[in-house]
Amino acid sequence: MPPGTALPLPMDFGPDKPNDRLVEEFRETIDAYMVSEVLPHVPDAWVDYDKTKVGYEIPINRHFYVYKPPGPLDEIEADITQLEGEIAGLLKGLIAP
Hints:
Helix content is 47%, strand content 0%. It is an all-alpha fold. It has one domain (20-94). The termini are far apart.
């Protein structure tokens, strides 16, 4: 947020709410950011103010996922067999004889 920004921000909350007032309030700041930080690296970049959204998403899996190959099939089969036995034991307690 630029220094001196008054709170609360001029926006409506919710995914289907328009944020035109907020974008208009910060349009100069957005344009200045584009000129100083983006255009030097991507000269043909532009902002489509009709599609501008507020906030961001951090794709946790893309940044932090570490692939671990599955274990040998024998171990997987043994784990499944053990779990099936545990499930069968739990079900016995629910079914009247």
